[in-house]
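[Automated response] Your request has been received and processed.

Submitted sequence:
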Amino acid sequence: MARRALLSEAWWQQATIIPDNEREIAKHYTLDRSDLELIMRQNKAANRLGLACVLATLRYPGRPLADGEVLPAGVLRFLARQIGAPWESLQYYPLRDFWRDGKQMISA
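Generated structure:
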């Protein structure tokens, strides 16, 4: 049975775009107290910022980042300022499974 598309591809792309202007970033990506409590439980700055990015994009635009998709620099810096982490620490987030207590657990 053929499926009928309810939304056009163009509409879907527009509805799920991540904003890059300051007003929209502040509107959609301001973390509340419960978010901050959860995020600050993470040990490392990279993990805190990575979790903040995941929470933020799941809430708006309501989807995870696609493979190879990068958050706009303004969003990343806005989230980093809220949690007191350097925005550059996100580059270490993918390595979180490979290192524990300074020892490599899985070869990359």
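Summary generated for your ticket: Residues 104-108 have pLDDT under 50 and may be disordered. Residues 20-96 form one domain.
If you did not submit this request, please reply to this message.
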